[in-house]
Design brief:
- Helix content is 30%, strand content 23%.
- It is α/β, with parallel strands linked by helices.
- The chain has two domains: 170 residues, Thiolase/Chalcone synthase (Peroxisomal Thiolase, Chain A, domain 1), CATH 3.40.47.10; 154 residues, Peroxisomal Thiolase, Chain A, domain 1 (3-Layer(aba) Sandwich), CATH 3.40.47.10.
- The strands form three sheets. Strands 1, 2, 5, 6, 7, 8, 9, 10, 11, 13, 15 and 16 form a twelve-stranded mixed sheet that branches.
- α2 crosses α4 and α7 packs parallel to α8.
- The longest helix has 15 residues.
- The two termini are 24 Å apart.
Length: 363
């Protein structure tokens, strides 16, 4: 049964800021996602001479992560039109790889004039999407009028070495989600922040967080269930909370990383959760252009999904070379498509079987 929430307590995205290897600002992300222009190139930020793979999506002029996050938080608050009084009544949720003692989160909150750091998320690739779901929950329940969610990851040697030694990185310099012949993922920079507010206090908004689902399939330390059970359950929960059916979904920004096993599992999850609609709903993974930003992936991909709905155009699944029989989906390949619905899903999954689904509705 759908959660009953008045329109006034709906959670809406009122401010956003984003930087990735695609460029700085929302326009750069959307332009590259629609054109299918990938940002992968040889890594120069640190030594990769001894690595199996030497490519990632890195922004050449990226500053320290703390500084990039501070700029993003401030820009998102400005985009939402928050004055000093509104900021002083707003808390921060931060998704990063590590923040002992929440010192970074506290410093970011103080620097932006916020009330403080509410929570830090270090739950791998569902960190940011989990934070967004928590922010929306607080707003729907009347426990907050607004929350700033920020997330950041800049490609660095430790995680790069981990994924390279695990043979998870693409050997051909391209990420090809759902495609025949895909060889793996590539890492990418991302720093983003959004302001999530109750509709009744918002001055305007980019989109509504209409529903969300969070599950864990507990199947394997690093592999999802082959039938996509965890992600399917997260999608079903998001649709129930949003009070809509599968046939109302007009786009899925998939988690698909370009790895053989996880892409097949996600395709199975979509078929299980959406039924016959899975064969016709347009699907793409924007990781194909900006790479996998780990803890920040969920926020970057949410922002791209919001921008796509607002502009009425759906991003291309770049790098696609041909269909895979294990991924029988309507993948957007040749060119952007017009949005046929105001609803979209943004999906994420992490090691340990954690899965999230965010249901977005265009304003």
């Amino acid at each position: 049964m759908a959660e009953q929430v008045s329109a006034e307590r709906a959670a809406v995205v009122t401010g956003l800021a984003v930087t990735s290897a695609l460029g700085r600002g929302p326009e750069a992300q959307l332009a590259a996602a629609l054109a299918g222009t990938a940002a992968f190139a040889p890594v120069h930020r640190f030594d990769v001479a001894g690595r199996r793979v030497r490519d990632a999506a890195t922004l050449p002029d990226a500053g320290p992560l703390a500084a990039e996050l501070a700029d993003a938080v401030d820009a998102a608050c400005a985009d939402a039109g928050l004055d000093a009084a509104a900021r002083a009544d707003t808390t921060l949720m931060l998704a990063v790889h590590s923040d002992p003692g929440a010192r970074l989160a506290a410093a970011l909150a103080t620097g932006a004039g916020l009330a403080g750091a509410r929570r830090v998320y270090t739950t791998a690739c569902v960190s940011a999407s989990t934070a967004v779901a928590d922010a929306a929950t607080l707003i729907r329940l009347g426990r907050a009028d607004r929350v700033v969610v920020a997330a950041g990851y800049l490609v660095e040697p430790d995680q790069y070495a981990l994924f390279d030694s695990g043979k998870a990185l693409a050997t051909d310099g391209a990420v090809r989600p759902f495609s025949h012949g895909r060889t793996g993922l590539l890492l990418g920079d991302a720093v983003a922040a959004v302001v999530v507010e109750a509709k009744q206090v918002a001055q305007g908004n980019h989109a509504e967080i209409a529903g969300w689902g969070r599950t864990g399939d507990a199947y394997h330390p690093v592999q999802p269930h082959p039938e996509g059970r965890g992600l399917a359950a997260a999608i079903a929960a998001a649709l129930r909370r949003g009070g809509i059916g599968p046939d109302e979904i007009g786009y899925v920004n998939a988690n698909a990383t370009g790895t053989d096993y996880s892409d097949g599992s996600e395709a199975a999850a979509l078929r299980a959760a959406l039924g016959t609609a899975a064969a016709t709903v347009p699907v793409s993974s924007t990781k194909s252009v900006h790479g996998h930003a780990l803890e920040a992936s969920g926020l970057l991909e949410l922002v791209v999904t919001v921008l796509a709905l607002r502009h009425g155009k759906l991003p291309v699944n770049a790098g696609f070379t041909g269909p895979d029989e294990h991924c029988p989906l309507d993948v957007i390949t040749a060119a952007p498509r017009p949005a046929g619905s105001s609803y979209a899903l943004s999906l994420n999954a992490a090691f340990g079987g954690a899965c999230t689904a965010l249901l977005v509705r265009a304003s």
